[in-house]
Amino acid sequence: KGLLRRMRIRQKCLSRKPVKGTNRWKKQARRVAKEHAKIRDSRRDYLHKATTKIVENQDLIVVESLRVKNMVKNRRLARTLHDASMSEFISMLEYKCGWYGKEFIKIDQWYPSSKTCSCCGHKLDELAPVEFWTCPKCKTEHDRDLNAAKNILAEGLRVREGFPGFKARGESSSGFD
Questions:
Q1: What are 78-84's contacts with CB under 8 Å, separation 24+?
Q2: What is the pLDDT of residues 42-84, one digit of tens each?
Q3: What does pTM read for this prediction?
Q4: What gap in Å lies between CA 64 and CA 105, rounded to an integer?
Q5: Cα–Cα distance between 151 and 116 in angstroms, integer?
Q6: Any alpha helices (H) in the chain, and if so which ranges?
Q7: d(Cα 31, Cα 139) in Å, to the nearest integer?
């Protein structure tokens, strides 16, 4: 939090310099660049520590192959996704799994993980943008994110065992991109 606050102050000071290109402006621009580098390095360090801890403690990691590039076109999600460095996080998980000899499986991005009941397998036609929903078939109440995580794991295990999985839009269900 202190890094971001200091960054804002330095950025504000730079924007108030009257003439771009002067020595004072260049000096302040270097300060701003240093703050950007500190924030970038801090985030990258956190990602390395988090991914290493995950890979060391798990034998199988299953993720959904999301197109982060397309997701950042949504103005509401863009800043959060960039701050979280989702693409970098997933690529770090993937190459560290190779280093540690662990399994890494990507499932299809079109797999309906959020709207499929993890208990009975019933798939909703449409899912309202709510945090919780109840399956109309087995009457189980689901947390949307937890239910999706269970379904992603189940699909990853199906892919791992070689059973035909979910197919949509003419894509294969191999699990590896």
A1: 83/43
A2: 989 999 999 999 999 999 999 988 777 777 777 777 777 777 7
A3: 0.72
A4: 8
A5: 7
A6: 2-15, 23-57, 68-71, 75-84, 86-100, 144-161
A7: 58
